[in-house]
Design a protein that fits this description.
The protein has 208 residues and is of the alpha+beta class. The chain has helices at residues 5-19, 26-30, 37-41, 45-65, 78-87, 92-108, 122-125, 150-161, 185-193, and strands spanning 73-74, 114-118, 133-140, 143-148, 167-169, 204-205. The chain is globular. Helix 4 packs parallel to helix 5 (78-87). A 4-stranded antiparallel beta sheet has the order 3-4-2-5, covered by helices on one side. The protein has a two-stranded parallel sheet with strand order 1-6. The two termini are 33 Å apart.
Length: 208
């Protein structure tokens, strides 16, 4: 932020858009004093998602400034929205609206559930899935994240822990990328339908 002008200009522009959409200025939350109430807000997904989006897009623009441009884009979770924007699908203002709405609506859902990263392949995890737990992300050949109802997720994680596999519970407020997110979809669909879409200038691979 201090040393790269292209990063800084884009980052500040994004923060300006989010300041119109969030209760607290995003920059003040991201750079809050340790232990302060503002710093704690960064762990709320209503602020985590805008913060990630701001950093990811600013990083992309800095790389672009250095002459580095990808042939194809892929993003996971909020990164998929960042990829859509830099590909040219949404204007920056509209992308910020979508990101802010996504974070706000997810934050408003009942807290609870759990997410755990497992040292296990998709093939190992899939047969053990049952009601209340599902795969949230595949981070590598032997790195799978599960999400859902707390008891079900933790019970499945224990099975792998008992086999000597590493497990790590994610410090999140909600069980993202699980059926527990479905109640916000209708409201989110309304927001997405209100922004303008354009043909991407870079190919984007969807996670769907």
């Amino acid at each position: 932020l201090e040393s790269c002008a292209s990063f800084r200009v884009v980052f500040e522009e994004i923060c300006g858009y989010f300041d119109e959409l969030l209760e607290m200025p995003l920059r003040s939350v991201m750079f809050a004093e340790a232990g302060s109430d503002a710093e704690a807000r960064l762990n709320e997904t209503a602020y985590t998602q805008p913060a990630l989006f701001a950093v990811e897009v600013a990083l992309f623009r800095q790389l672009e400034h250095w002459g580095i441009e990808p042939d194809i884009l892929l993003g996971h979770s909020i990164g998929e929205l960042a990829a859509a924007h830099v590909a040219g699908v949404w204007s920056l203002r509209d992308a910020c609206r979508v990101v802010a709405a996504r974070g706000r609506l997810m934050q408003a859902l009942p807290a609870g559930g759990a997410m755990v990263a497992l040292e296990a392949s998709e093939a190992e995890v899939s047969p053990l899935l049952h009601e209340g737990v599902e795969i949230a992300g595949l981070n590598g050949p032997r790195s799978t994240v599960i999400s859902g109802d707390e008891a079900a997720v933790l019970a499945l994680a224990e099975q792998f822990k008992g086999k000597g596999r590493r497990t790590s519970r994610l410090q999140v407020s909600h069980a993202f990328h699980s059926q527990r997110m479905e109640p916000m979809l209708d409201a989110f669909r309304e927001v997405v339908s209100s922004v303008a879409f354009a043909t991407p200038r870079l190919p984007v691979v969807s996670n769907v």
